[in-house]
Every structure is written in C-alpha cells, then in structure tokens.
Specification:
The chain has 7 helices and no strands.
C-alpha cells in the first residue's frame, strides 16, 4: 500500500477522534474514490504514491471548480465549504517547486546521467525525462520541465 494512502487511512481515525467532520468526510470521500479507481478496471490494481497524488490533484481541482460555480451562482456558503474541502485535500499534496528548484533538479539529474554515459543528445531526451518526471511529478508544470530539458541538452 502506498504511504500516502496509508496516511489518509490513519488520518480518518484522527479526524474522527478530533471531531473534525469536514476533514473526516473529505478524506473518506477521497479514499472511496481511490478504491473505486483501483477496483474499477478489468483487474484490480494497487495505486502507488504518484497515482494517489494525481488523483488528489484532480479531486482538489474539482472542488475549486465547484466553488467557483457556487460563487458565480451567489452561494457563498456552499463555495466556502468546497474551498475548505480543497484545502484539506491539498494538505496531502507535496510542496510545489518553483522554477529555480525545478531547474536544479533537471541540472542535477542530467549532470549525473552525463557522468555515467557521456554528453546527452536531443535524441536521448526521453532518457533524461524519465527520472526527472519521476522526481518532479505533480510539483511543477510538465511542459515547462520538458522545455528546461530541451534547452539543457542543446
């Protein structure tokens, strides 16, 4: 079981004991969505942390979108409830990287690969992108990372 999924399950108990109904309901809903997606295919799968993070990002974005719709419809109380749920979910997401931090990760990984294999060419961009994406996934824009790698390899 992924450590993030285990953390969500542990926090359900903590929210129950603390009487935090909004966080409890939100975390239970997210866990339900994870389990539905895991069992929804032809064969059941176990999500890893990267898949759980992707799902959490989507769930938080859904709530932010719904809050916007409620705000436009003149329902500030319902919008505030959606924002609160989004904040609960976002607390489980890794800290986003800024451009300098992402560039540092790109440089470090490419430098390491070049030390092992010699100068990388544009044809080997996929070789560099795989470990970079694994480390940065969900914390910085993928297109911007791809552009950083492209510039670094030229």
């Amino acid at each position: 079981m992924s450590t993030l999924k285990q953390q969500l399950k542990t926090d359900v108990v903590g929210h129950m004991k603390a009487g935090n109904k909004i966080a409890l309901t939100t975390v239970r809903n997210v866990l339900g969505e994870i389990e539905t997606r895991e069992k929804g295919g032809k064969t059941p799968v176990e999500f890893d942390d990267a898949q759980v993070i992707t799902l959490l990002q989507k769930e938080a974005a859904k709530r932010r979108d719904t809050a916007q719709i409620y705000t436009e419809a003149g329902e500030p109380d319902r919008a505030a409830a959606e924002v609160t749920e989004a904040e609960v979910i976002e607390a489980y997401l890794p800290k986003p990287l800024n451009a300098e931090e992402a560039a540092a990760v790109v440089d470090r990984i490419i430098t390491g690969l070049e030390a092992e294999q010699g100068k990388l060419s544009m044809k080997q961009m996929g070789l560099a992108m795989k470990p970079i994406t694994a480390e940065i996934a969900g914390r910085f824009d993928g297109k911007a990372v791809s552009e950083m790698v492209r510039k670094r390899l030229q």
